[in-house]
Amino acid sequence: MSPFSSDLSRRPTILTVPGLNGSGPAHWQTLWEQSRPDTSRIELGMWNTPHRNAWVTKIDQAVSSARAPVILVGHSLGCIAISWWATLSPQPYGWPVAGALLVAPADVDRAETPSEIAGFAPVPRTSLPFPSIVAASTDDPWVSIERAHSLAADWGSHFVDLGAHGHVNAASGLGWWPEGQELLERVMDASGGPRGEARSPGDARAILAREARLTADNHLPAS
Q1: Packing angle of the helix pair 201-218, 178-191 (nearest 10 deg)
Q2: How far lies 210's CA from each of 54, 112, 207, in Å?
Q3: Which of 107, 178, 104 shows the shortest CA–CA distance to 136?
Q4: N or C: which end of the chain has fewer CB within 10 A?
């Protein structure tokens, strides 16, 4: 019996994980939180002076108290915090975190990393125990597209090249970011769909790969 089968009517709980300084009122994460009843923010605290272990603890507490299954939506440093949570709080594949959308992960390993986030280095290189998508921009000042692709490979994530959208934040002018919502729905499908039926790692990868082939028609690059 799958861990979701006791109540198949439940939709996943979507938890956003912002990066340094949080996500302001015009950020797509904030807009999603305001428009989707299934979405809320993990209040990590210390937004301006983040601490790796403190953030990991906050993520762990939020996942433990949420109605499972959980989909994590990280941005920038939030993606790195999620990877650290997965490393320090191992789980069976797909439970209780059923999937993740990781957008514009900050490269904390580069030489010019600001001191505020240097404590998150080195980035974990272990495979994430849930289906995931890493989406990155070709002109992001916080991570090169090559480095983002490398992180996706390390984490076992499907990689999506978003084109030139800066740091994929409020300054990028994305608004509600419907393309991001499409990526979120793809993760939800790979993790078990809106009803949360558990999928094997192979099935999840096959779904992400199949969806990737459809993006050519939607003009959303993927690889």
Answers
A1: 150
A2: 37, 38, 5
A3: 104
A4: N
Residue 105 and residue 75 in contact, taking contact as beta carbons nearer than 8 Å = no
- Per residue in 133-182, pLDDT (tens digit) is 999 999 999 999 999 999 999 999 999 999 999 999 999 999 999 999 99
**HSE of 93, CA atoms in CB hemisphere, 13 A:** 16
Residue 183 CA to residue 101 CA, distance in Å, equals 7
Number of alpha carbons in the 13 Å side-chain half-sphere of residue 125:
5
Determine the Cα–Cα distance for residues 5 and 109; give it in Å rounded to an integer. Answer: 41
Q: pLDDT band for 11, please (50, 70, 90 cuts).
A: confident
Rg (CA), the chain: 16
pLDDT in tens, 192-216: 754 445 566 666 666 666 655 544 4
Distance CA 27, CA 85 (A): 23
Over 80: is that where the pLDDT of 220 sits?
A: no
Cβ-based neighbours of 202, under 8 Å, separated by 6 or more: none
